[in-house]
Amino acid sequence: MEPFKIHILGCGSALPTLHHNASSQIVEIREKLFMIDCGEGTQMQLRKSKIRFTKISAVFISHLHGDHCFGLIGMISTFGMLGRTATLHVYAPADFGPILQQQIDFFCSGLEFKVEFHPVDTSKSQVIYEDRSLTIETIPLEHRIACCGFIFREKPLKPHIRRDMLDFLQIPVSQINNIKAGADWTTESGQVIPNSRLVIPADPARSYAYCSDTRYIPTLHQLLCGIDTIYHESTYTSDYEDRARLYYHSTSKQAASVARDAGAKQLLLGHYSARYIDESKILAEAKTIFPNSKLTDEGKIFDV
C-alpha cells in the first residue's frame, strides 16, 4: 500500500512555547507532499523532519491568524534561495491574495518560480484540488474569522492482479490494465474466466480530515462521515469549555465527540493552549469518549 502519512511540524496554539511550535502539518500521499498551515518556525521544523522542501507542491492555509500563516513568506523566500523552479500553489481565504503578493513583491523579488494563489471560499464544502489519485475539499468551520478545514481523499484504487492466475492462464501482460478495469478473460478453448478469479479486491481508499481552529459544531460529523483519520483542534480541557466557546475553540471532549459521531478510526488532537505543560489530561478526557485518540507532537508521524 502506498504511504499516506501525516507529519506534525507544529501543534501549539497562538502563543509559541518552548514545547510546541505554531500549527503546520505535511500530508504525504503517494509520493506527493502537501502542507497544511504554515505557522512561524515551520522552516526549522521541516529541517528537523528531514522532509525535502522542494517536494512540497501546495500549501493550504485554513485561516488568516498569524499562528497559521506567518511562516509562509519566509518559506517562499527560502525556496527561492534553494533554486526552486516548480510552481508553488497556495490555497487560502481570498483576502490573503493581495497580502501575499505584496509580501512577495517586497521581500522576494526575482523569484525563479511562480507562486500561484487559489482563493478559497471558506463558507462552502467543495473540491478545490484534484489529480488522478486524490481530491481535496474544504470543510466550513466556525472561528472568529473565516476559516475552513480540509479533507484529503484517495480516489478508489484498482484491484490487485493475481499473478498466479495470469501465469496459469498465460494471459499477456498487455491485458493487465483491462483486467484491472473489470474485464473477464476468455481462454483459447472459449472458457470465460470471471474477473473475480483474476484479481484481489483493491485496498480501501483512505481519507484524512484536518479541522483547524473551530468552535464545537454538533453537525460537523455529517461532513466527516466515514473519514479514517480526523485531526480536530483541542485547545482546552472541559473545565475551560466556557472559554472555548467564547474564543471559538474546542475542548478535547468535543473533538472526541466529532470523531465518534463521524465513525472515524483515529483522532489526532492538537492546537494546545500554552497553559498546558502536560497534555495528558487533554488526552485522557478525549479517550473517555473516543478511545483511539492520540496526542500530536512535533516530529510525530501518523499513518492514515
Overall description:
It is a single chain. The N and C termini lie close together (11 Å). The chain is 25% helix and 28% strand. The protein is α/β, with parallel strands linked by helices and 304 residues long. The protein has ten helices and 18 strands. The mean pLDDT is 95. It has two domains: 4-157 and 203-303, Metallo-beta-lactamase, Chain A (4-Layer Sandwich); 160-200, no CATH class. It has helices spanning 42-49, 66-69, 72-81, 96-107, 163-169, 176-180, 220-223, 241-246, 252-262, 280-287, and strands at residues 4-10, 24-29, 32-38, 56-60, 88-93, 115-120, 127-130, 134-140, 148-154, 160-161, 185-186, 192-193, 199-200, 207-211, 229-233, 266-270, 293-295, 301-303. The longest helix is centred in the middle third of the chain and has 12 residues, at 96-107.
Summarize the topology.
Blueprint: E1 4-10, E2 24-29, E3 32-38, H1 42-49, E4 56-60, H2 66-69, H3 72-81, E5 88-93, H4 96-107, E6 115-120, E7 127-130, E8 134-140, E9 148-154, E10 160-161, H5 163-169, H6 176-180, E11 185-186, E12 192-193, E13 199-200, E14 207-211, H7 220-223, E15 229-233, H8 241-246, H9 252-262, E16 266-270, H10 280-287, E17 293-295, E18 301-303
Parallel strand pairs: 3-4, 4-5, 5-6, 14-15, 15-16, 16-17
Antiparallel strand pairs: 1-2, 1-18, 2-3, 7-8, 8-9, 9-14, 10-13, 11-12
Helix pairs in contact: 9-10
